[in-house]
């Protein structure tokens, strides 16, 4: 289906800076709305239910899976994450530009459900920098960091399936790149035709 809004999907291995880039983009572009995913993992730090994630029990998650309530869901680092199908459809149908932060498995599933979705992959500049960022974050035990690094290899191999790739070496440059992708997508013919159908019709452009 064609929707007036745009759907952006950002994926990256842990530590690549995905969340920081998306936060910076939202501060620069108020038209981009975040999509809040469901997860079975517990909250970290100052995270709040309904803001960073909908924190759900395994039983609640199972019920949504059974009801086909997720457009995508996946196991990530021993926990489950999912994106509500209804929430995405309603918002892009209303003309909103929605942005999802999810893993590569979910991004590929989103593309299958929403053909117009724009997939963006964030890469670190090096393995050394990725490890350093995970250690500086101070959220994970050493064994968890090793697991995230091991998973990163298979995750980054999926970058070829994405529409755009940003190398987060200099943060300010990476934010500019992300904002450029969002703006360029809005100016594509198909996106403009969906979003401003009234103008196209008044100009007899079909």
TrEMBL record:
Pfam families: Guanylate_kin. GO terms for molecular function: ATP binding; GMP kinase activity. It comes from the Bacteria. ATP binds at residues 12-19. It is found in: Cytoplasm. It is an enzyme of class 2 (transferase). CDD domains: GMPK. Keywords: ATP-binding, Cytoplasm, Kinase, Nucleotide-binding, Transferase. SUPFAM superfamilies: P-loop containing nucleoside triphosphate hydrolases (SSF52540). Its EC number is 2.7.4.8. It catalyses: GMP + ATP = GDP + ADP. GO terms for cellular component: cytosol. Residues 5-183 form the Guanylate kinase-like domain. PANTHER family: GUANYLATE KINASE (PTHR23117:SF13), GUANYLATE KINASE-RELATED (PTHR23117). Essential for recycling GMP and indirectly, cGMP. Belongs to the guanylate kinase family. This is Guanylate kinase. The gene is gmk.
